[in-house]
Amino acid sequence: MEKKWHIIKNLKVAESGEISAEATFNPDSPWFDGHFPGFPILPGIAELGIVSDSIRKAGEAEGKNIAISQIRKVRFRQFIRPDDSVRVVSSSDEKHPMRYKFKLMVNGQLACNGVMETVEADDTVCGGQQC
Prior knowledge:
Layout: E1 6-13, E2 19-25, H1 44-61, E3 66-76, E4 86-92, E5 99-106, E6 109-120, H2 123-126
């Protein structure tokens, strides 16, 4: 069985379209091995993976297969450590419902924020693979 590097729980989609969830990490995750010895932090790409996974899981609940098409305006503001619990909040843009502003919060403090654009995935977007 494949070991998961994070767990997304308490995923909720509000009527407004806001997606919220909590993410926790396995402290033994390989993500923390080289980033940095003696002071492990979650790499930025893993933080973006958490956002992507929460948006995709919310889409799956609605029967949609969503793929990420663009990530922009990302700001990393605080370290995320192995034992931290992270709150993920994403909200879609009224004019562009497939565009999500997101933020990751640790202990009530902003750790990361940005914009993630998505598309409904099909074989063309995913190259015949599952997105």
